[in-house]
Amino acid sequence: MKKYHVYIILPLIISLIIYTFFRSENIIINQIIYDFYPKPHHFTLNISNFLIYNLPQGLWVFSATLISKNLYIKKFNLAFLPLIFSFYIETIQYFHLTNGTFDSWDLITAVISFIMAYFFVSCPYKKEQLFYTFNFRTILFSFSYLIVFLSVYNTNHYFLNN
């Protein structure tokens, strides 16, 4: 079980590091961090754009899929939710209904990450209904979707100050 949790938490930590040190200061998570700590140095290393802009979504899909395996709302298998959510985000970006830029590589990364998590990592959890019991797994599930909100580009720079 601990190994499974490492598969979930480590990709989320890697994503946080990428967002904190390599992405825009206008991302909500960075604004929160800056309220408590001095601005960290943003690195300008010659790193592939794929690693900075596409990999975090893939890591999130991988982790969220693992969290969601054998988790249901009624008969709907929530393991598919991260992939559906990724396609939804990219669709609304494509039609300019939200901040962000549509990127087909995000979709490709999401599909590959979903396949890896769903088909190649076995789930130690038994089937259960979401929020039927309050436990570590439901906390991880909620936290994984909170992370998506925190990674949103915020054009309102006074988000936390008002």
Task: Describe it.
The protein is mainly alpha-helical. It has one domain. Helix content is about 60%, strand content about 5%. The protein has helices at about 1-20, 30-35, 50-70, 80-95, 105-120, 135-150, and strands at about 70-75, 75, 130. It has a three-stranded mixed sheet with strand order 2-1-3, with no helix packed on it. Helix 1 (about 1-20) packs antiparallel against helix 3 (about 50-70) and helix 4 (about 80-95) runs antiparallel to helix 5. The longest helix has 21 residues, at about 1-20. Mean pLDDT is about 85; it is low at about 155-160.
Number of helices: 6
Question: What is the 3D shape?
Answer: globular
SSE order, as H and E? HHHEEHHEH
Whole-number tally of structural domains: 1
Brief synopsis:
The protein is mainly α.
Which terms would index this structure?
162 residues
SSE layout and pairings?
Layout lengths: L1 H21 L5 H9 L12 H20 L2 E3 L2 E2 L3 H14 L9 H17 L7 E2 L6 H15 L12
Parallel strand pairs: 1-3
Antiparallel strand pairs: 1-2
